[in-house]
Amino acid sequence: MKKRALMYASVASMIQQFNMANIRLLLESGYEVDVVCNLEQGSTITPEKIAAMRSELEGMGVRVIHVPIPRKISAIGEIITSFRMSRQIIAQGEYSLIHCHSPIGSVLCRLANRFSGRYGKAKMIYTAHGFHFFKGAPLLNWLIFYPMEWFCSWFTDVLITINHEDHDLASRQFRARQVAYVPGIGVDLEKYRPDSSGWAEKLAELGLCGADTILVSVGELSVRKNHEVVLRALAREQDPHYQYLICGLGPLKEQLEQLVEELGIRVRVHFLVYLNDIAQILNIAYIYVFPSLQEGLPVALMEAMAAGKAVACSRIRGNTDLIEEQGGTLFDPRSVDDCADAIGRMLNADYEQMGRFNTQKILGFSRETVGRQMADLYRPDPK
């Protein structure tokens, strides 16, 4: 009988952004693959991209199943419905491997597997894309999410962490059979590489010029991504040639656009949706600015490093795994002064040399490296 695998995540964007390579790897390894996620709500990608992802997966022979998994722990009705649906899917799926993601999704999946009547039949792998409890996290996060993760670790064969802080904690305190460190999903070093061709054309397309000093951020327009601190820092710099490009969608778009108007920096800030040409956008940047309040191991930051950008980023878990002083500077993400100072230091430093350092540093985080690690973890355990 053919091997069957289940890829399980709360929302479609978690599949599209972080798991397409894993699904291909499972298919290449001889698995039939099902995907479970919420196809209708909660994603950070457009409905058109969700539809395209579903079409691509189905074209690969993957069955895609909608389950209304919520992103909020307070959505009790949807949690109960999702648990029942997930338990039935697992009970009928005859899976030999299950790979789950995201805090609420992974808890639902692991509990559904535990009470499916097939517990122990499938190798249960959970990737923690950054625990919600971490140094400096709100106490409420520790009170809610830590006990959930600890309890479910008893039903986990492999717990994958993507940064060193989470790996240290999970190794010491959780009960998974194996705790592994894998550096995220890796970065496409061929796509994101220093490339000055098309530089002038891209500037013209965006209404910019060679005299502009271009700062770039890529990320969802949300509280967690913290773009506001950069906007307030930029408002303190009166040079009209400072141009800030924010690539992303999200719930704070109107709020951030209003803030830009209030700060009087409308002509210097450009909101761009997630584009297919992020690599080209990065290649016109002087500095990459990454002000997040919370990350696991940020893909967007790794892509900027691969593109040879010097970085000013928040001093948080995940970022500190990547950025050394030879390649950038860290700042307090809640301090406008610290953010402004960090950007100023980068622009007065040898940012081209820093970019070259980052290009070398990121070689150890390639997709090929991650793919080899995941292939090892997907292998069936010896009998």
Explain the overall architecture.
The chain is α/β, with parallel strands linked by helices and 383 residues long. The chain has two domains: 3-186 and 366-378, Glycogen Phosphorylase B (Rossmann fold); 199-364, Glycogen Phosphorylase B (Rossmann fold), CATH 3.40.50.2000. It is 43% helix and 18% strand. It has helices at 12-18, 20-28, 47-59, 76-93, 103-114, 139-153, 164-173, 199-205, 227-235, 253-263, 278-283, 299-306, 319-322, 336-348, 351-361, 367-378, and strands at 3-11, 31-38, 63-66, 97-101, 123-128, 158-161, 178-181, 213-218, 242-247, 269-272, 287-290, 310-314, 328-331. The strands form two sheets. A seven-stranded parallel beta sheet has the order 3-2-1-4-5-6-7, sandwiched between helices. A six-stranded parallel beta sheet has the order 10-9-8-11-12-13, sandwiched between helices. Helix 5 (103-114) packs parallel to helix 6 (139-153), helix 9 (227-235) runs parallel beside helix 10 (253-263) and helix 9 (227-235) crosses helix 14. The longest helix has 18 residues, at 76-93. The model has no long low-confidence stretch (mean pLDDT 94).
Topology at a glance:
Layout: E1 3-11, H1 12-18, H2 20-28, E2 31-38, H3 47-59, E3 63-66, H4 76-93, E4 97-101, H5 103-114, E5 123-128, H6 139-153, E6 158-161, H7 164-173, E7 178-181, H8 199-205, E8 213-218, H9 227-235, E9 242-247, H10 253-263, E10 269-272, H11 278-283, E11 287-290, H12 299-306, E12 310-314, H13 319-322, E13 328-331, H14 336-348, H15 351-361, H16 367-378
Parallel strand pairs: 1-2, 1-4, 2-3, 4-5, 5-6, 6-7, 8-9, 8-11, 9-10, 11-12, 12-13
